[in-house]
Here is the input.
Amino acid sequence: MKAGIAAAFGLGLALTLASCDGEDPVDSALRDASAARHAAAALTTEQQQTRSASAPAPSGDQALVADLLKAERAARTAAERAQARATDPALRQLAEAQAADSSARIAALEAWTAAAD
Here is the structure.
C-alpha cells in the first residue's frame, strides 16, 4: 500500500515538474509580471516621446507656471477636503478661504498661460 502511494506521489511530482518545464511557477509568474510592467513602461515612454516631439518645449517661465499650477491645484484640493471634514466652524472657514485663494491664483496663472501662448 505504501509503495502504491509513493509511486502515485512520484508520478504526480513528475507530471507537475514536466508541466512547468523544471521552472518554479512562482519565478515564472514573477518574470511574466515583470515583462508586462516593462512593456507598459516602454509604451508610456514612447507616448511621452511622441508628445514631446510634437509639442514645443515650454520656456523656463512656462515650466515654472506649470509647477505653480500643479501646486495650487493640490492646495485647493487639500483645502476642499479639509473644509468637508472639519468639525470646527473656524477651521472650515479657514479652509474655505484657502480654497478660494487657491482658485484665484489658479485663474491668474491660467490667464498668464493663455496670454503667453
The helical segments are 2-19, 25-54, 60-85, 89-116.
